[in-house]
Amino acid sequence: MPLKQPRHARRGSRDLEVNPIFSREPVRVPRYVMPDGQMEPDTAYQIVHDELMLDGNARLNLATFVTTWAEPQAQRLMAECAEKNMIDKDEYPQTAELEMRCVDMLARLWHAEDPHRATGCSTTGSSEAAMLGGLALKRRWRHRRLAEGRPADRPNLVMGINVQICWEKFANYFDVEPRYVPMEGDRYHLSPETAVELCDENTIGVVAVLGSTFDGSYEPVAGIAAALDDLQARTGLDVPIHVDGASGAMIAPFLDPDLHWDFRVPRVASINASGHKYGLVMPGVGWALWRDFGALPEDLVFHVNYLGGQMPTFALNFSRPGAQVVAQYYNFLRLGFDGYRRVQQTSRDVATRLSGEIAKLDQFELITDGSQVPAFVFRVREGNDAFTVFDVSAALRERGWLVPAYTFPENRTDLAVLRVVVRNGFSHDLADLLVEDLHRVLPHLEGQREPHRTADDAGGFAHGTEIKTSRRHGRG
């Protein structure tokens, strides 16, 4: 049964007519039915190319955290490796070797106590990596409970309601009760006190987010760990932390070296990150790392033949291209630590300067300023009844800018914001053009008698800020 009504049922099934001046036969192509015969490659290319012109400009997409620019050399390497299947370790041993080198580099970047004992893998993105981290937490908790002769049928996971939607999927798919901490007042993410409040003997772990998709802020990993240390001292409950570093894990090591969020915090068992966000790779790669072999239960790991030996593998997906892993290794070689630091610092500088320019506009008020993850949110100042953030988003879209507008989750659904994500390739010049366009649209918006758009007009433009419902519990 289809998940929704087919597009052709809603829009009609008229065939696609090809301009006979620039195309070879055929000049009529079915939209939703495979053609009976072949066509020239140039004709097929032109048809697909023309339709894709209706997509938004990726470089002007300020909604996504995903990398939209890469050097030609990186793109060339990706093209050369597009046909290589990452799962085939025996056939493509050097691609597998580059993957392991990246894991080693990340283990050192995230201060693993013994980088040689840290273990990890590449994934299709940070969502898969997060699910692998969650599975390891659940399996470790289950082994411990069964060894103690206790029931292991009611696992729960504590996290802020600001977590990315992949954590809700993890809880649903793998039968774990999600315990969301709602926002309160000016607290937009998890705090040490609220995390500990929801932990009990069935808690498999706490998820701390280094770079919330709602506002770009870091959650206080070290503070949460200290609160959990105190909880263990008082109750004996030993609750590990998984750090969802989808964005921040590739920012903080370079720009916030004194911030303790990684394996320097003993309670951090695992970390996920997105190589295709601030790892600077085109879409298709994430990373999951565990502190040591003990943090990743052996019964979750499969072993494949590799150069006459056995290579461990842990993944939800099977076949996937090796191109993005190769591009990640290229970036690590190409930029080195100082290169990454300079790239990330430029993104943060653009974000903070742009947020400062927007703060000067009487119509807006900053919620965050981009001084952690290079992303910030702002709202329409209270008392402005002419337009909403959704009106602003629509007006900017007319100029090609994709700036999402959305409401915060429980208990701050009253707060509607715009978010700007600054990535490599979004320059100071582009930031100036965005400010100019804001100045251009504001007089028209202020001339409205009332707002024209609400949250219902936002569509699927939230990028990780989907609304969830919290569930509050006491300790059992």
UniProtKB/TrEMBL annotation:
EC number: 4.1.1.15
InterPro entries linked to this entry: Glutamate_decarboxylase, PyrdxlP-dep_de-COase, PyrdxlP-dep_Trfase, PyrdxlP-dep_Trfase_major
Needed co-factor(s): pyridoxal 5'-phosphate
Entry keyword Protein biosynthesis: no
Major enzyme class: lyase
GO biological process: L-glutamate catabolic process
Keywords noted in UniProt: Decarboxylase, Lyase, Pyridoxal phosphate
Annotated region described as Disordered, given as residue ranges: 448-476
UniProt-recorded Gene Ontology molecular function terms: aromatic-L-amino-acid decarboxylase activity; glutamate decarboxylase activity; pyridoxal phosphate binding
Reactions performed catalytically: L-glutamate + H(+) = 4-aminobutanoate + CO2
Family per record: Belongs to the group II decarboxylase family.
Listed name of the protein: Glutamate decarboxylase
Organism: Streptosporangium album
Lineage, highest ranks first: Bacteria, Bacillati, Actinomycetota, Actinomycetes, Streptosporangiales
